[in-house]
């Protein structure tokens, strides 16, 4: 009996993928991202097959080929430079957010989150645009890329909404071949973007997300992206930025008619003998060189008692406690990177074409969207990792459904040669039998 229950749970996973595709309208999304490859096979079948390879933790070269196409066909699909993978992720996230909107309280503050993570390729030599990139954890240079990622959060669910696979703007650090394609083409613009400045590309990702109806009021980022220019550009897009400032002596802010660096401003506030609050030390409003107003919040660093952190936002009307609470939401993108690398084969691919790498990242983000949607849709208290293992165990086993489909087809063949009365009784018996099965299996049998 336990083996039957296990098989039924397995088929639920395939049913979840089909339901997810129908709710987000995957066919319409593919049509909008410039898919022009002439093939009799529906491209949704390629995507479904790629999802299954991630769940069973197999590479494209070791995965079991589908009856209708080979793994080479799937690689050609990923390597197609005409497909706009960034737009694909944006439209996908927008559709998922639309499905989740009834579950989101209208008072929630929606935010975009910017961060990057190492996309390591330590054993690659001929991968396109491969570069020497700095690993901030190991404090050394490695071979790979920086996966610049834009995420969306409602404080409960996190969804990746855009990305850019960054190489290096310094030609000396680029190790792999670089194809100089026409910049008017999508593939050419994608490669040019990979060699641009990170902050500039981050603003482009935010702008593209807004054009595809991703709802947000704030943009969260850490000290690597915080600068007066960044806050100014985010403000011009109609959003408010919240970030952590570097305690640099080269950047000055105007406070009460005088210019101060962050360190000097902290000493100035200390000299005023203000009493620190329970959750933060000091807060004040300053102006940057461009004239934009920023509220700075000085927070005690919990790791170092004699140290402090500085948060800044263009939404000066926010209370310091609200600023701290909103910025704490930025940690969700770190949990996404951890889950993607641990479960979803984030940087474990053998594709060497740059377009193919972008396609691989888009499929990884889609897989995470599927798990996040399932967790929220069913009000599931299990983690993303738990759901991944359940889906992964389900993928290889379809024996029960295959046997039942064969059984129904055999009955239909027998019915054609029988008298009318037994046919009616047999059809009623089959209908009752199908209605007693789990919903996912019944759905597969009705299709068959």
UniProtKB/TrEMBL annotation:
Lineage, top ranks: Bacteria, Bacillati, Bacillota, Bacilli, Lactobacillales
Domain Transposase IS701-like DDE: residue ranges: 57-258
Protein name in the entry: Transposase IS4 family protein
Pfam families (UniProt xref): DDE_5
InterPro entries assigned: IS701-like_DDE_dom, RNaseH-like_sf
Regions crossing the membrane: none
Secretion signal, residue range per the UniProt entry: none
């Amino acid at each position: 009996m336990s083996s039957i229950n296990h098989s039924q749970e397995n088929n639920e996973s395939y049913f979840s993928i089909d339901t997810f595709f129908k709710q987000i309208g995957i066919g319409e999304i593919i049509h909008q991202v410039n898919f022009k490859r002439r093939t009799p096979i529906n491209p949704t079948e390629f995507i479904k097959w790629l999802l299954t390879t991630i769940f069973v933790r197999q590479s494209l070269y070791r995965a079991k080929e589908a009856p209708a196409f080979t793994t080479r066909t799937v690689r050609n699909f990923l390597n197609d430079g005409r497909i706009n993978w960034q737009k694909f992720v944006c439209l996908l996230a927008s559709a998922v957010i639309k499905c989740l909107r009834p579950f989101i309280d209208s008072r929630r503050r929606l935010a975009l989150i910017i961060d990057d993570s190492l996309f390591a390729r330590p054993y690659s030599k001929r991968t396109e645009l491969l570069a020497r990139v700095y690993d901030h954890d190991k404090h050394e240079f490695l071979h790979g890329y920086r996966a610049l990622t834009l995420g969306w959060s409602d404080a409960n669910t996190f969804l990746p909404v855009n990305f850019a696979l960054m190489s290096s703007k310094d030609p000396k650090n680029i190790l792999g071949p670089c194809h100089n394609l026409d910049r008017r083409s999508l593939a050419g613009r994608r490669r040019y973007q990979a060699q641009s400045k990170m902050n500039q590309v981050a603003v482009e990702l935010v702008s593209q997300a807004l054009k595809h109806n991703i709802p947000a009021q704030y943009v969260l980022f850490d000290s690597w992206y915080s600068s007066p220019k960044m806050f100014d550009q985010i403000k011009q897009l109609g959003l408010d930025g919240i970030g952590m400032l570097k305690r640099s002596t080269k950047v000055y802010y105007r406070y009460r008619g005088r210019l101060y660096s962050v360190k000097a401003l902290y000493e100035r506030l200390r000299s005023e003998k203000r009493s620190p609050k329970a959750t933060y030390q000091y807060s004040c409003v300053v102006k940057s060189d461009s004239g934009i107003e920023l509220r700075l919040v000085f927070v005690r660093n919990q790791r170092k008692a004699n140290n402090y952190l500085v948060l800044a936002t263009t939404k000066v009307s926010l209370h310091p406690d609200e600023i701290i609470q909103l910025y704490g939401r930025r940690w969700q993108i770190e949990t996404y990177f951890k889950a993607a690398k641990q479960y979803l084969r984030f940087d474990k691919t053998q594709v060497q074409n740059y377009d193919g790498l972008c396609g691989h990242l888009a499929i990884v983000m889609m897989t995470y969207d599927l798990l996040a949607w399932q967790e929220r849709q069913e009000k599931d208290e299990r983690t993303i990792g738990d759901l991944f293992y359940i889906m992964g165990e389900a993928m290889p086993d379809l024996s029960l459904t295959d046997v039942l489909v064969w059984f129904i087809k055999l009955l239909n063949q027998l019915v054609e040669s029988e008298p009318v009365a037994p046919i009616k009784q047999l059809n009623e018996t089959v209908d009752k039998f199908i209605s007693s099965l789990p919903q996912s299996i019944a759905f597969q049998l009705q299709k068959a």
